[in-house]
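Box 3.1 — From sequence to structure: o-succinylbenzoate synthase
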Amino acid sequence: MRCVQLYRWQIPMDAGVVLRERRLKTRDGLVVRLTEGEREGWGEISPLPGFSLETLEMAQHAAIDWLQAWRQGSALPLPALPSVAFGLSCALAELADELPQAADYRAAPLCTGDPDDLVLRLADMPGEKVAKVKVGLYEAVRDGMVVNLLLEAIPDLHLRLDANRAWTPLKAQQFARYVNPDYRSRIAFLEEPCKTRDDSRAFARETGIAIAWDESLRDADFAFVAEPGVKAVVIKPTLTGSLEKVKAQVAAAHQLGLTAVISSSIESSLGLTQLARIAAWLTPDTIPGLDTLNLMQAQLLRCWPGSELPCLDSTMLEPLL
Ligand SMILES: O=C(O)CCC(=O)c1ccccc1C(=O)O
Ligand SMILES: [Mg+2]
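Predicted structure (token representation):
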């Protein structure tokens, strides 16, 4: 016998989380539970405002249609909406015991503001030290100074930087000029420095700073190709689609010698712990980009090891079916 449940949830965000110039006050999403006999599988469906093309309402409708058919025993293809395909495919994978339990709970600490704060957090990070710094929010010169400061303070640190396409070629050059040339090789990559892919490619060529694609993966004309200066691709499964599609993208990246970084779309702790398992499974040699739990004020259903945030259980969720 098959049973399904879909829950809607809302978690307040930490004050001041700004995404694409809008403040995200709450994170809203769905979780799905599939049961068949003794087995169950969970998945999270949380389109990210400003990033996902689908709204939560669209996702909810598509999920309900699919779940009702699945409960009747039909084998419908997964919906096309990426967040829905991702959440349902995770639930199916758990049900079939295809998503390994082992997880990579290392997360590259994310710095959006105070670099001193990051230095403290890195001091007690065991093993490979990798952190991620958002750049392009302030003056390019300030970004360059922050990068120098961090790389100077922590000699075994490698940085991932993310400009989210903020820079003109001139701003990007200003940034690069400020970074001590001896430190450039410790910039693991800089995600999407410029507004266009061609400008970003030129930046990599002219500065010797490796770049990574993130937003570009969602461009209609994006293709996985090896290019000089391109080091990595950032894969956000909630924005990508089914686990099958995520696996195919990771394989395409690895085939070309690119680093594939499994990364957060600000899922709840349920989705983030699944992403940590996906990362341990598909990208075991790469620290995933999952340090977003602390942007939220609570966890959901499954806890992230070591997190002190309260964890909501299923009695706190609103069942929709
Ligand atoms: O990649 C990470 O380490 C954290 C996730 C992150 O930066 C992010 C999270 C949600 C939306 C966009 C982004 C981004 O990469 O810009
Ligand atoms: Mg990015």
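Summary of the box: The longest strand covers residues 2-12.
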